[in-house]
Specification:
With about 250 residues, the chain is an alpha/beta fold. It has two domains: about 80 residues, Ribosomal protein L30/S12 (60s Ribosomal Protein L30, Chain: A, 2-Layer Sandwich); about 130 residues, 3-Layer(aba) Sandwich (Alpha/beta knot), CATH 3.40.1280. Helices cover about 35% and strands about 20% of the residues. The strands form two sheets. It has a six-stranded parallel beta sheet, sandwiched between helices. Strands 1-4-2-3 form a four-stranded mixed beta sheet. The termini are far apart.
């Protein structure tokens, strides 16, 4: 008697994402991924013939993390990585960055070193380059985490890591189905909602236990002015004085 056929098991979307791997390219994303060790590290490719000091640093970091290093010629690297020529002679095969729930992010932020707990919430920022740039500013300014929505926010791809110069490797990220409810939860946990406003007299460095919302127009329009309790500018040190992020109207 033949046994009834069994239907193949379906792989869940979350399990599929956990098994995915991508190539990070460029010195800063690769170095920060090797330093942070927050994701799976599968192997590193180095272009032959490069003798820059930063190459030795990457090799040392990879070996310390137990990552195999392979020296390849430029054509081999570009073919395997599908590089656009801006790989800077290095590529790291990695798994996805872990993403937290909002409750997990709150636990982490409250126990993180430093004074106060600072989070950044983005709404309507869909371009990976913009998310990466904002992650870089947030991490440099001392934020402990980034809150993205499940819809209208990009996955944490290699493009995000590269645009953040590797900062996203350190910044904890939580995705929420509804930003309005997330902000209400933060208020219930003693956070203030602070609108990011370039003309404000105070900066993120002066805000303790606060959250910056990346699109104050959304907060005012969707949740009312009462939900924004203060405003703050983002402190940016260096040659660039602003981050240009286009938001939907």
């Amino acid at each position: 008697m033949s046994r009834p056929s069994q239907k193949p098991r379906r792989t869940s979307a979350s399990a599929s994402r956990r098994s995915e791997s991508i190539w990070l390219t460029g010195f800063h994303p690769v170095r920060e991924a090797l330093r942070a060790r927050r994701r799976r590290l599968d192997g590193m490719l180095i272009r032959a013939g490069r003798t820059r000091p930063d190459q030795a640093e990457l090799i040392d970091l990879a070996r310390a993390a137990g990552v195999a290093v392979e020296i390849v010629d430029g054509a081999n690297l570009e073919l395997r990585v599908e590089s656009d020529g801006n790989d800077q002679g290095v590529a790291l095969r990695v798994g996805p960055l872990p993403e937290l729930s909002l409750s997990e992010l709150l636990i982490y932020a409250k126990g993180a070193p430093g004074v106060g707990s600072r989070l950044v919430a983005l709404d309507g920022v869909e371009d990976p380059q913009n998310v990466g740039a904002l992650a870089r500013v947030a991490e440099s300014a001392g934020a402990h985490g980034l809150i993205l929505t499940e819809r209208r926010a990009p996955p944490l791809t290699a493009a995000v890591s590269r645009a953040s110069a590797g900062a996203i490797e350190w910044l904890r990220v939580a995705r929420v189905p509804n930003l309005g409810r997330a902000l209400a939860t933060l208020q219930e946990n003693a956070y203030w909602i602070v609108a990011a406003a370039p003309g404000s007299n105070s900066t993120l460095f002066e805000m303790d236990d606060r959250i910056l919302t990346g699109n104050p127009r959304w907060c005012w329009a969707r949740r009312g002015r009462g939900s924004v309790e203060a405003s703050s500018s983002w402190p940016i040190i260096g040659s660039k004085s602003r981050c240009g992020v286009k938001l939907p109207h």
